[in-house]
């Protein structure tokens, strides 16, 4: 269905169709020659959804003549470490950083905690890989700020840069078991809240309405994180009416249509399916995410090198190998044995680190994360636009070698989502549901993915809950075990 812009200033409607090329995706050629000399041979061909099962093509373009890196392990961030452009401070800057550290230590000893914190942060900004500074800052956080989780992170990064650092090793030996207990306690708490959510009747009016409203909120937030300027009310209007809103670019509005299409596909096809997740599934999701915005690149691997800040994703020649490793891990017993939040966060990070597409990597990664969570019986997580800074900071920490802050961030988002649902469905709740307020005002209850196409009338809401979704992980494990 086309999206049109209604010009209210004229007597006759001036209709501008959005997603002009969305119907032409299937007609795109299966191969486009690439010969621009960006690290791959001249006969390297653009990878499309039609090549997934083409054995001859896979063999021909497997490594582009380059040596393949080893497979990544579950907490291994070797993709990012391998391609990261590490910052190396000059000798003068290193001396200045050490001097700042000594000033911070002096302030610490004199009890001036706030000033010491700022000077430690300045020292790390000058030389973020200095093991002595990282360790000293970690000790400050542990003993004076009483933040053992952040302290353990500092020791971890110190050991990433200097594996034999004796103080960091000694400190990490002390803090790591405690931090692991803290992380596990959060997982246990989240599991209890998930169980509590599933005791609520599926026809609970608050739960039904929250699911309906949250579909639009998820589209709004995941687009807003990428810089989309549409409001929640405008996002909802586009999804419901397929009409463009005035004063906003057609690209931004087509991004809404793309996510609506991708979410509908995931809810109707992938969530309840038993069996292996395939590369084609990820390409199909990306095809829908980008199909209304850039159909020529939708569902197609990039063919040139891209750069993301100080991180350089793998070259185009290596994308197939990294993606195949990701798919194998997503379907492995080792991956499925992880806690679902842990598993989902790692899947998100690994896909976004590979960065296989020119555009839409973040949106596709968040959709993959929520697919895994929904299959495990969790409500999908919205990373709100207000969380954008923390989201990117924890991704950067993963690039630096410690992915645990990102897992904790996703765990906090999941717990917040569960808390909001439990609050909405509580008999004592005073929460005002979004449909009873002005649409420009966003409430926390607007968060969970359920395809809006399932809501033709109120009686359809109960059937949309997918009561057996939380069994999907167990079924997938049984499937893999029987196949082996």
From TrEMBL:
Span of domain Fido: 277-412
Glycosylation, residue list: 267
GO CC field: membrane
Site (Important for autoinhibition of adenylyltransferase activity): residue numbering on this chain: 226
Keyword Lipid biosynthesis set for record: no
TPR repeats: 97-130
Principal EC category: transferase
Membrane topology per record: Single-pass membrane protein
Keyword Transferase: yes
Subcellular localization(s) per the UniProt record: Membrane
Keywords of the record: ATP-binding, Membrane, Nucleotide-binding, Nucleotidyltransferase, Repeat, TPR repeat, Transferase, Transmembrane, Transmembrane helix
Catalytic reaction list: L-threonyl-[protein] + ATP = 3-O-(5'-adenylyl)-L-threonyl-[protein] + diphosphate; L-tyrosyl-[protein] + ATP = O-(5'-adenylyl)-L-tyrosyl-[protein] + diphosphate
Catalytic center residues: 355
Residues involved in ATP binding: 359-366, 391-392, 399
EC number: 2.7.7.108
Pfam families named among the record's database cross-references: Fic (PF02661)
Gene Ontology MF annotations: AMPylase activity; ATP binding
InterPro entries the UniProt entry points to: Fido, Fido-like_dom_sf, Fido_containing, TPR-like_helical_dom_sf, TPR_rpt
Annotated family: Belongs to the fic family.
Protein name: protein adenylyltransferase
Organism: Lymnaea stagnalis
């Amino acid at each position: 269905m086309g999206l049109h812009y209604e010009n209210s200033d004229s007597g006759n409607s001036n209709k501008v169709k959005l997603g002009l090329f969305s119907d032409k995706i299937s007609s795109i050629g299966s191969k486009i020659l690439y010969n621009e000399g960006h690290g791959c041979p001249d006969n390297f061909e653009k990878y499309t959804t039609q090549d997934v099962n083409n054995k001859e093509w896979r063999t021909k373009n497997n490594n582009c003549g380059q040596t393949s890196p080893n497979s990544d392990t579950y907490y291994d961030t070797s993709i990012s470490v391998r391609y990261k452009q590490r910052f190396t401070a000059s000798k003068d800057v290193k001396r200045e950083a050490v001097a700042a550290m000594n000033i911070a230590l002096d302030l610490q000893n004199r009890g001036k905690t706030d000033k010491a914190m700022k000077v430690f942060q300045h020292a790390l900004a000058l030389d973020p890989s200095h093991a002595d500074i990282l360790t000293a800052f970690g000790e400050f956080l542990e003993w004076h700020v009483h933040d053992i989780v952040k302290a353990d992170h500092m020791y971890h990064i110190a050991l990433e840069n200097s594996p034999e650092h004796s103080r960091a090793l000694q400190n990490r030996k002390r803090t790591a078991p405690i931090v692991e207990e803290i992380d596990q306690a959060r997982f246990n708490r989240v599991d209890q809240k998930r169980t509590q959510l599933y005791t609520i009747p599926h026809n609970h009016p608050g739960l039904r309405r929250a699911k309906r409203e949250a579909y639009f909120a998820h589209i709004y937030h995941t687009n807003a994180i990428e810089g989309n300027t549409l409001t929640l009310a405008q996002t909802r209007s586009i999804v419901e009416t397929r009409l463009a809103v005035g004063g906003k670019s057609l690209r931004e509005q087509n991004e809404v249509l793309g996510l609506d299409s991708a979410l509908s596909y995931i809810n109707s096809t992938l969530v309840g399916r038993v069996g292996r997740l395939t590369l084609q599934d990820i390409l199909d999701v990306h095809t829908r995410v980008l199909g209304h915005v850039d159909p020529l690149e939708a569902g197609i691997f990039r063919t040139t090198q891209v750069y993301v800040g100080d991180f350089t994703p793998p070259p185009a020649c290596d994308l197939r190998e990294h993606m195949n490793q990701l798919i194998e891990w997503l379907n492995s017993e080792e991956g499925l044995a992880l806690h679902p939040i842990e598993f989902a966060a790692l899947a998100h990070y690994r896909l976004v680190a590979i960065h296989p597409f020119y555009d839409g990597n973040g949106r596709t990664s968040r959709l993959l994360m929520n697919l895994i969570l929904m299959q495990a019986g969790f409500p999908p997580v919205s990373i709100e636009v207000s969380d954008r800074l923390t989201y990117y900071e924890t991704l950067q920490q993963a690039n630096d070698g410690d992915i645990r802050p990102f897992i904790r961030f996703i765990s906090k988002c999941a717990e917040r989502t569960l808390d909001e649902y439990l609050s909405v469905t509580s008999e004592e709740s005073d929460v005002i549901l979004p449909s009873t307020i002005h649409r420009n005002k966003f409430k926390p209850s607007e968060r969970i993915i359920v395809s809006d196409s399932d809501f033709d009338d109120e009686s359809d809401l109960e059937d949309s809950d997918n009561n057996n979704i939380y069994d999907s992980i167990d079924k997938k494990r049984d499937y893999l075990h029987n196949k082996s």
